[in-house]
Design a protein that fits this description.
heterodimer, A: about 300 residues, alpha/beta, 10-stranded mixed sheet, two-stranded antiparallel sheet, 11 helices, about 35% helix, B: about 525 residues, mainly alpha, two-stranded antiparallel ribbon, 8 strands, binds iron/sulfur cluster
């Protein structure tokens, strides 16, 4: 017990030190410092396959099964990307089958309640329906699962300790208060951050004028991620959007990659996802910023592939 | 005062019709199905004034939608103003609320009754000459418009405050119950998003005024002002349904004071003023009153429409047209005059739109807002796309589905996606990369066209003496459809840094578009 505390304490201190020394420096310089803090190499599971249900089970299984993340009686929030009024084949939202299988796993693991929501960009009623996620979730017919519209009253402004772009922001309290958060983004192209992955997906559980985050997208997202703790990140790359992201609209821009990436370390999962687009983790500023803050490991040599 | 079985039947009919209209009103909302399953604008499809506007507008008459209005007219020709007594939701509201408000017993000079005919004749003539203002005075439009723009938003606001209170304060026992009932209310009895309308208060005041006129005289509006009542009155001249006795009886004269419409005179029965409420079959102390098919003698009394009055009304109607035409072209005066997708060309639009507000009620993105003067003085209450408040949802075709007059044509989704309602322009003096040298791409991110109509181009910019590589948005004119989501979502405070103007809209004549201002 005390041992863990001490270890956490040391890690935190190193992170803070590195983070503060990074202020004003070029990313390239800080990268050299990164291996030092990634003492515990996080596991990362990557699987390929056409059958999505099986793919999800295999990938989570490789991490030791959902029981590693969800214990009986817990309230779990699953946060897919349901941001856009687009159908499944346009690869703008998380695949409904991925969401559904994850919910099933959580239920099997004894979760008391599984809550699913997203602060959508188009009308939420349209997004929930058009994405196929509504019918997938309702098809489960379980009263322990709910696909909910975000409640405008449940946002609360919280302080962001050590925030670089913001020192306060509005967060959606059901996420902060849940026992577990499973982040399930889809991998997509994005004009400024290049890609939208796990970190960007967390924008769906914050309030306020989200457009303001784009002025300093990398630091802003790192600020947000430093407040919201995710237990597991599952990146849906069963099909990815390589242009006209993040909402697409043309099948020409969709590639079938049939891949799923999962890790308890969001930064590691995001880092790996960049390679599917022919990029390197250091090409994506949000990944770099998060790693610099010590929010996770971006050096793929440091992760434990399972 | 006794009620006859006729009176009960009428009250049931009034309550039933009102309930149906209110239910249809609640169904005028997106509930997860792209095609609305109910004829939500039924109220206007049975509205003879809406049919008249449609008939006199350019283009063919909308038989397929408006045939029910013709049925009502036919029924009126046969039986009289049964619509007013048995169906009209505004009439029923006046009957119902009159008790609450308290009813005046004053009788106005019979001259007042002419106003509704003059109004009808004046507005009708103006419509014939191309200026349609029937909707401003149409009782059904007034009713639905007031519900949409004022009553319903206020009701939602109130309910939300109640739910919020129990959400924030933990009242033992109550809070849990209230919280649990919230989803039901939200999904069935409340608007999904709190409606926001600029003309809410203005519309409410007019509605309240009409209601408060009950304090002066029972059915003041119906007797004296309603142009639809006037039209139905004119049509009932030869109705075959006849009241006996036709005149006031010499020994009683109760009808004189008890008839809500003052339709019985010592000289005869004013059929065009009788609302067929049938109350007299009950209140007559001698039970003399009956309604039956016309037989023999007819003591019909009409409202004395003085020739001078009729001519003045017609002349004013005729004058309206040139008075409006000499004004400047509105869409050139106001580049932000943007109409919903499927809207017909502006001139025709103004002639077709009856200001019923169905489209504003159903608009999923809350972008449709009633115009005050933005579309010129005759554009009052017509729908405007106001992108800073909301945007036109890319995959939504609801407004065209509900418009009862064809002012907004129903578009299939593929057509809708190509329908251009405007064009985005970037204001470089406010747009963040241009004006402040910081990254932003919100407009590009939200742009819904398959191939984005806003592209980000990387350029170097000198900011505070240092060169920064930044991405700048640029609009691709031929891909932009003017849906306005970029303007809605632009994170700049106050007015957006990207604005939709009405350049290149599909509803304008092609030649007008191609020629452009420079030849
Ligand atoms: S007179 Fe007008 S408002 Fe009154 S009942 Fe008839 S149609 Fe309705
Ligand atoms: S455009 Fe709107 S307000 Fe006008 S008639 Fe059609 S639905 Fe009614």
């Amino acid at each position: 017990m005390t041992g863990i505390d001490r270890r956490t304490f040391i890690r935190q201190s190193i992170r803070t030190a590195v983070a503060s020394s990074a202020v004003g420096c070029l990313p390239a310089l800080d990268l050299l410092a990164l291996p030092a803090i990634a003492a515990d190499s996080p596991p990362l599971a990557v699987r390929k396959g056409k059958n999505i249900k099986q793919l999800v089970k295999e990938t989570i299984g490789a991490l030791g099964g959902i029981e590693q993340f969800v214990t009986p009686g817990e309230v779990v929030v699953i946060k897919p990307n349901i941001g856009w009024d687009r159908t499944v084949e346009l690869a703008a939202n998380t695949h409904p089958e991925v969401v559904k299988t994850l919910v099933e796993l959580c239920l099997d693991a004894g979760a008391k309640q599984v809550r699913i929501f997203d602060r959508t960009c188009n009308d939420e009623r349209r997004c929930y329906t058009q994405s196929g996620i509504r019918s997938a979730v309702e098809g489960l017919k379980s009263d322990r699962v709910s696909l909910e519209y975000m409640d405008r009253r449940a946002y609360k402004e919280l302080a962001i300790k050590g925030g670089k772009a913001f020192d306060r922001w509005e967060f959606y309290m059901p996420v902060i208060e849940a026992d577990r958060l499973i982040n399930v983004p889809i991998a997509k192209h994005h004009s400024i951050s290049k890609l939208t992955l796990g970190m960007k997906n967390l924008m769906g559980v914050i309030g306020g004028n989200r457009g303001r985050l784009h002025h300093q997208i990398a630091e802003s997202l790192a600020d947000i991620a430093s407040v919201i703790h995710t237990d597991l990140t599952v990146i849906d790359a069963t099909r990815i959007l390589v242009a006209n992201g993040p909402q697409g609209g043309r099948t020409e821009d969709v590639r079938n990659t049939e891949t799923l990436i999962a890790s308890p370390d969001m930064v590691a999962a995001d880092a790996f996802a960049t390679t599917l687009f022919g990029l390197k983790p250091e090409d994506v500023s949000t990944v770099v910023a998060a790693a610099q803050r010590g929010l996770g490991v971006m050096d793929l040599k440091q992760v434990r592939m399972v | 005062m006794k009620n006859s079985s006729w009176t009960y039947a009428r009250k049931i009919s009034q309550s039933f019709c009102l309930a149906v209209f209110l239910w249809l009103f609640l169904q005028t909302e997106y509930r997860g199905i792209d095609q609305l399953p109910y004829p939500v604008s039924l109220l206007f499809r049975i509205d003879p004034l809406a049919a008249l506007a449609d008939f006199l507008a350019p283009g063919p008459f909308g038989w397929q939608i408006l045939w029910p209005a013709l049925l009502i007219l036919l029924g009126t020709v046969l039986f009289g103003r049964f619509f007013c007594g048995w169906i009209c939701p505004l009439g029923s509201t006046l009957d119902g609320l009159g008790k609450v408000i308290g009813r005046g017993r004053r009788t106005f000079s019979p001259g007042w009754r002419r106003v509704k005919y003059y109004l009808l004749i004046g507005l009708g003539t103006a419509t014939l000459f191309g200026v349609q203002l029937l909707g401003l005075f149409d009782p059904l439009a007034i009713f639905l418009r007031s519900l949409t723009l004022a009553v319903y938003p206020a009701y939602n606001y109130g309910l939300n405050r109640v739910f919020d209170f129990f959400y924030e304060h933990n009242v033992p026992l109550l809070s849990a119950t209230v919280k649990n009932s919230y989803p039901f209310f939200r999904d069935n009895l409340m608007a999904f998003h709190q409606p926001i309308f600029a003309l809410g208060l203005f519309t409410l005041i007019i509605f309240l005024t009409i209601l408060l006129l009950e304090k002066v005289e029972h059915r003041f509006w119906c007797k004296n002002l309603c142009p639809l009542g006037g039209l139905l009155g004119l049509c009932s001249r030869y109705a075959i349904l006849q009241r006996t006795p036709q005149k006031l009886c010499a020994d009683c004269k109760s009808c004189d004071s008890l008839c809500r419409s003052g339709a019985v005179r010592s000289s005869g029965h004013m059929r065009s003023e009788c609302l067929l409420c049938m109350d007299c079959t009950g209140f007559c102390p001698e039970e003399r009153v009956h309604f039956g098919l016309r037989t023999g003698s007819d003591h019909y009394v009409g409202v004395d429409l003085q020739r001078r009055g009729v001519l003045t009304a017609m002349a004013s109607g005729v004058m309206m047209a040139p008075a409006v035409r000499i004004g400047p072209v509105t869409h050139e005066q106001n580049p932000y005059l943007i109409r919903p997708p499927g809207a017909v060309a502006e001139d025709e639009f103004l002639q077709r739109c009856v200001r019923c507000a169905e489209c504003m009620k159903v608009c999923i993105g809350r972008t449709l807002q009633p115009a005050l003067l933005q579309a010129g003085p005759v554009g009052l209450w017509t729908p405007l796309v106001v992108p800073r408040i909301g945007y036109c949802e890319y995959n939504c075709t609801l407004c065209g589905q509900v418009c009862p007059t064809g002012a907004i044509a129903p578009l299939k989704l593929p057509e809708k996606k190509k329908n251009v309602i405007g064009l985005a322009v970037i204001k470089k003096d406010r747009c963040l990369p241009f004006a402040k040298g910081v990254e932003c791409l919100v407009c590009e991110e939200h742009c819904p066209t398959g191939e984005k109509a806003i592209v980000m181009e990387e350029k170097e910019l000198l900011v505070d003496g240092e060169i920064r590589r930044l991405k700048f948005p640029r609009v691709i004119d031929k891909l932009c459809i003017g849906c306005g989501i970029c303007e809605t979502k632009c994170p700049v405070e106050g007015a957006s840094a990207v604005r939709i103007i009405n350049e290149g809209e599909s509803r304008r004549k092609r030649s007008e578009l191609l020629a452009g201002p420079y030849g």
